[in-house]
Write a structure and sequence with these properties.
homotrimer, six-stranded parallel β-sheet, alpha/beta, ten-stranded parallel β-sheet
Chain lengths: 356, 356, 356
Amino acid sequence: VREGKQITLGALAEAIGGEPEGDLNLVLSGASGLEDAQPGVLVRVEHPKFLEAALACPAAAFLTTRDLKAPGKPLVRVKEVKLAFARCLELFYPEERPQPGIHPTAVVDETASVGEGATIGAYTVVGKHARIGSGAVLHPHVVIGDYAQIGEECVIFPQVVIYDQVVVGARSRIHSGAIIGADGFGFVWDGRRHYKVPQVATVQIGSDVEIGANTCIDRGTTSDTVIGSGTKMDNQVQVGHNVATGPDCLLIAQVGIGGSTTLGRGVVLAGKVGVADHVRIGDGVVAGALTGIWRDTPAGARISGNPARPHRDMLRIWHATPRLPELLRRVGALERRLGIHEPASDPEEDVPGESG
Amino acid sequence: VREGKQITLGALAEAIGGEPEGDLNLVLSGASGLEDAQPGVLVRVEHPKFLEAALACPAAAFLTTRDLKAPGKPLVRVKEVKLAFARCLELFYPEERPQPGIHPTAVVDETASVGEGATIGAYTVVGKHARIGSGAVLHPHVVIGDYAQIGEECVIFPQVVIYDQVVVGARSRIHSGAIIGADGFGFVWDGRRHYKVPQVATVQIGSDVEIGANTCIDRGTTSDTVIGSGTKMDNQVQVGHNVATGPDCLLIAQVGIGGSTTLGRGVVLAGKVGVADHVRIGDGVVAGALTGIWRDTPAGARISGNPARPHRDMLRIWHATPRLPELLRRVGALERRLGIHEPASDPEEDVPGESG
Amino acid sequence: VREGKQITLGALAEAIGGEPEGDLNLVLSGASGLEDAQPGVLVRVEHPKFLEAALACPAAAFLTTRDLKAPGKPLVRVKEVKLAFARCLELFYPEERPQPGIHPTAVVDETASVGEGATIGAYTVVGKHARIGSGAVLHPHVVIGDYAQIGEECVIFPQVVIYDQVVVGARSRIHSGAIIGADGFGFVWDGRRHYKVPQVATVQIGSDVEIGANTCIDRGTTSDTVIGSGTKMDNQVQVGHNVATGPDCLLIAQVGIGGSTTLGRGVVLAGKVGVADHVRIGDGVVAGALTGIWRDTPAGARISGNPARPHRDMLRIWHATPRLPELLRRVGALERRLGIHEPASDPEEDVPGESG
């Protein structure tokens, strides 16, 4: 656990809107989960079942719920522990913001505009007519294309590439290696070769979006790819051309979304989900990890499996699947009992890893 | 829709080899699909069922087939609408080519050669004895290794890394974040640790290849990894060491290909397909998204599922799968009818997301 | 096959601890597999079944097992051919090490320390208080964050980003595009938006770790993400926050590991394996490609499928699966025979690619 800023129990409780118990002048210097507790830190204790372990750990204070009993232990009670814990981390460990200004090695085109208080890091390149919002941070080694726009207070980590014309809304945060606005994948066979369909639209990213490391969002063919405000993407996500996501979606690592697909508001796609192209996913759909989505999916559906099915049905199928070999045997026995001769139609299936 | 170049209906028809109808002097300023139509643009109308919507939209003209009837509407008739549309996009939105020349911040080794008319962008690094073909564009922040060769008229986007000795053919296009020629994954357990097998061969990429953002192609162990001319790869594709693909393959996003696997001519692997190592995939094989390929696959096969099966068989299996729980029940009923007592062998399967 | 250093048969045998046969002064200039054999090279012949082809190939000598008979052919006998071959590749093709020193264009913060004999490439940026170990190689275009530590003799390829505070052990090797220490994916819904949980811990990477191109390892929330010494990761692997892997794991391309999951010693996850969050994988577990792991997995298990099952069971299921449509028909026939009328409950399943 990193040493954080020093904050008294009383000040912390006030800052996060919680009720303190114990010495208000107790100085805390960090926050952690129970398993990493160290002297001086505040630990999160969300459930009474962890109380015993919490009391035994060296932490100085608890962040806990309204009704947990821990007589004598300094603590802060809040309604939503997870949310309050996030706020505590902000307070103890404020993100260091690089000095505003343009690093002498940055190459900013003379036609580009850079807002007040923005930071342009070493070797960062800003193209023609690009606009960097006030207070934005471009870390070192960022490349911003011509006519691109980066909203105010955005943070762009090293080695992000923003292609020409891409628009990023305010306060968005883009992690290293993310590539925004590369060509969508479009080719037509012309009888001799795959003829390239130029991808002449761009990408519009809303405000308060987070984009994970090495995630790719392709530019549109003739209409823009659109990412709704408040949407958060993990690492290595792939978003095809002409996709539109609603606001507040969560796309977990290694999700892939085919071209022209649309996601409603608040859609959650867990890790490695694949979505075909030209599919409409309704508001609030939740897809479990590894789901393969091929069809339009109604709002509110909870789905899993490949091809995706309602999660409830998929559970039944997953339960039944290991009994399939047994079922074959049992049906054979029934047939024999009734004197039915089924031809042995074993397709001599070739399955993976047989010899291994 | 971006404002494109201004082109008259007559000039456009001539350029794409189509038959114009209406005022040949009508000035068009862009092209789009129907859903983005704006005044002044040409829209693609590929099927009569869209005719009504097309007539109601503000577009100035249609790009359409030989036989669509739209009396009074300016249009261009072509045989292949998709292909002609790609050409229209080229004409309205020609890709801007950066000025030739070597940016003063580029670090080009004195032993490297740079062809006539090539562009070397800001901060791009070109290694010893590397050769950059004439007319090639290396955008800013590209790294070209020692002895690497980049063919004429290639376009390499920012933050591509080309390792030592890699050869890229003419007119290839490599998007940001792609990594060509990193070590293949080879280790031998020596009793104490995973001992590294040096990867001493390289990667040979044909001409007219497109490589998507953050795609990786590993260098070979002792024989080169080879990508056939005209092959197009989407984003986040992974190609293992010693792989050889034929010409004109299409590898969609997040495909992964194991070491020493070979792909014939014109193979299509849809999104997230995984191919084991040492597998031979014949000419023209088409694998649906999420297919897991473990075995040699004959030319022309259309496959899907994991493990991959002929698509036709897989459809039957996918249809039958949701009936598996019902089947268990029905077989139980049959057994009861015949007085057979099957021991309850329920393996108490542990399936994902049960509690959720 | 690249031209390698010239080494005599005798010297090579001595260097790799093998038994030479034939002219000890025979000069060899490279090593390859059988399919790439060229005059002057040593080829690997691991199994007698390849002997005939080996004798017909132009190679100058064989690297082979203790008991292979090839009268008159120069050869080196070893106990472990694969391992000895790796050593031969090292000897013939030693990796070129860039000149030590700091390139004039590198931006190294004055508070950073750079060990003796280290190389800092063109445009590489080293942050405040960072420590670069002796003999480490940072290729061009690497970004090292504040307070990060790179162990001695590490090799970091171009365009790797090491975020603040990340620690990398000695002799580790990180390929281009890898992103170490980006934020873990943590958000709490606060009723209006996904509220970010600051990720204030970091990543600790052991010694002798290899990390593939475009792989991402996220920083921890309040406890560090930890990669055990000797672990090797392929390209495009995703490791979530708070994960801990044991030593000597192998993570093949496109593996994804959810947050807070732990892997024991020597775990092998083949290509595209997905592991849920908060899962414990025991020592020596081997998961086949495309496995989906949702639950704790005991040491030594060999698993495959999604949801993962013991590989042996999964083989039976994979064999039985294609017979499911036939089984439906057979059960229907049994019911008709017994006069049972099952209502036709066909759920009109919607499956992928039906129309295609």
